[in-house]
Design a protein that fits this description.
Elements (H helix, E strand, L loop, with lengths): L1 H22 L5 E7 L7 H8 L2 H4 L2 E7 L3 H9 L5 E4 L2 H8 L6 E8 L4 E5 L15 E3 L6 H12 L9 E3 L7 H6 L5 E5 L2 H8 L3 E5 H5 L5 E6 H6 L1 H20 L2 H8 L8 H13 L11 H13 L9 H4 L3 H8 L1
Length: about 325
């Protein structure tokens, strides 16, 4: 009888564990994000992680920095990531190559270019004509930073190919060090590098490409169409967490955001991070909601076309899904 009681006890224990797992357990899902670079420009993403907004949705985020649009998209296409944070132009490039599983933009993070024009010399009365005849250290050809940069130059009557010496053969991660070592009179840089150079006297911020190029889907979260169809609840949870973070950044001072995201920029002072966050907020770079609208999509393709990099025009509804973001915002 004693053996029978033990056996029954074990069976009841297993039944109780199974019941608790079925009723009480919210299973944690892992989402692998490949971000194109590490930048204060992506502050809302880091806030979503650090403030526990993803965790609240039952998501475990694995964040990897893949350093460059090509590498980021390759990682996504090879199933090395579930979601990519990269410029929307990459989804157009993939689509134009005839992909059977297109990359869908489902949640926007930034809505302007995030780079700044940095001069080696301090120019108190900068005009865009100062670039004529200069050596300009630009970004990778075909990437959104370079296209937005060229768009701004042409807007001010400068032909990037003929009015200056344009350097585009430096790897993305090495552009700051190339400028610091003496290459170029002007350079196009992301933050915090632009502000770091200014603080160190290496260069001086003279203009914002974000202000010059207008609103566009500069960096968005995207995934394969198949992933979104197979994991609709995960995508919804992900977008809900992002929206919470976007609202948090919008409604809190830059100083608070700086404190939260400091672990991602260990070599940068909290004061400098605050300066950068404030600069991005003041020019409206952080999207305050995850919706990528038609006007932004059209502006993106206009900039790509102006740069001679648009392989084909792609309809808004083909590569943009706002349903998830709209449902989250209506809650």
């Amino acid at each position: 009888m004693k053996g029978l009681r033990i056996a029954l006890s074990i069976l009841l224990s297993f039944a109780l564990i199974a019941a608790l797992a079925a009723c009480g357990g919210s299973k944690t899902e892992k989402v692998r994000i490949a971000e194109v670079t590490r930048s204060i420009f992506y502050a809302p993403q880091y806030v979503a992680i650090e403030k526990g907004f993803f965790e609240e949705e039952g998501l475990e985020v694995e964040l990897t920095t893949t350093w460059g649009g090509d590498k980021t998209m390759t990682t996504l296409l090879a199933d090395g990531a579930d979601v990519a944070l990269v410029g929307s132009e990459t989804s157009i490039y993939v689509y134009a190559q005839g992909s059977n599983d297109p990359i869908i933009n489902f949640a926007q993070l930034t809505q302007t270019d995030g780079t700044f024009l940095v001069s080696r010399e301090k120019l108190d009365n900068f005009t865009w004509d100062d670039l004529k005849g200069s050596t300009f250290l630009g970004q990778r050809k075909g990437g959104m930073p370079q296209m937005a940069g060229e768009f701004a130059l042409k807007k001010h009557g400068i032909d990037p190919q003929n009015d200056l010496n344009l350097i585009q053969n430096v790897d993305f991660a090495n552009i700051p060090s190339a400028f610091a070592s003496g290459t170029g009179e002007f350079v196009q840089l992301f933050e915090p590098q632009a502000s770091i150079f200014e603080a160190e006297g290496i260069g001086y911020i003279v203009a914002s490409f974000g202000e010059e190029s207008g609103h566009l889907p500069y960096t968005t979260f995207m995934a394969k169409e198949s992933y979104l169809k197979e994991n609709p609840e995960t995508a919804e949870k992900f977008t809900r967490a992002l929206y919470k973070a976007q609202q948090w950044v919008e409604n809190n001072p830059a100083s608070e955001t700086a404190k939260v995201i400091l672990p991602y920029f260990e070599d940068t002072s909290v004061e400098l991070i605050e300066t950068v966050v404030d600069r991005y907020k003041s020019q409206g770079s952080f999207a305050t909601d995850p919706i990528l609208d038609q006007e932004e999509w059209d502006n993106l393709q206009n900039i790509m076309d102006t740069a001679g990099e648009l392989p084909q025009y792609v309809e808004y509804d083909t590569l943009v899904n706002t349903t998830i973001a709209e449902e989250v915002m209506e809650e």
